[in-house]
Amino acid sequence: MEKFNYYQLSFVGRREENQDSSVALDLGNSCYFLAVADGMGGAAGGQVASQLVAKTAQQVLSNSFSTSVEPSNLKDILTEIYLEAQKVISVKIQSRKDLSGMGTTLTCVLIQKNKYIVGNLGDSRVYVLSKGTCHQITQDHSYLEDYKNKSGKEADLNIAEKYGHYLLKSLDGGEDTPDIFPKNEEYYELKPKDGFLLCSDGLLPNKSNSHEDMFYKTIMGTQKLQYAAETLIVNAFNEGSTDNITVALGEYGKFDRTNEKIKRVKYPPVEKKGKTISRKSLGIVASWCLLTVAVLLILFQKLLFKESKTDV
Question: Mean pLDDT over all residues of the chain?
Fold first, then answer.
């Protein structure tokens, strides 16, 4: 049986508060749990929601794994985590009206020896690294994903900027239920040198682009999971991410890392002077410039008209 190694890292980024939470648990008997939750609903609400869900997951897992667990029970355990989390958030909102509207995503992997399943609600993601590739298992419960499915194409930059944070499902004390993968089997087989990347959407500053190749090269090009997590976060920050950024990594055995190593980055990242303007800010500046030009043209035309009347 291969050893399972894991590492988690969360960075506040350009926000004042970190509303993300992450979980990495060794449950004993070669069982593990990785999760990322991205809170929403204001600084206080988002932080409370993601922390509540993380705590609830740990409690459910502690109770479930206090006795022997069969692989056929794994899906039931994940489903219970989401159901209990919805109840806990609902109770908290009812007791504190100032937290009304809070919620969180939750994406997770539950591993038992060489078997695993995946759960997801919201737009945080699970990627699997296997056989030289990195591919996303989860499907975002978001406006952008719905747009792509209905239109058959990726959203353009303007749509991604405007609707990038709109969720269709989440843990908000309501009745939304998670996707549990695989859908048609009891579990996936985990093979030596396979691994996972879990992340909040802060790792994806441009949601209309594919990131799998970059993620794979970064993880395989760094010597440790810690260095990979740091590099992924620094890259996202430097690309303009304006959100909290959270990463959880796991490897079953040891990855086949490339010989060409990526130099370890300086962590945490710092703001670079003169390079802080986001695409949204650029769009606002461009709009103001166009408006200014339009106003000047109107004034110029009025001036010409006035002069022509004077000449007559």
Answer: 90
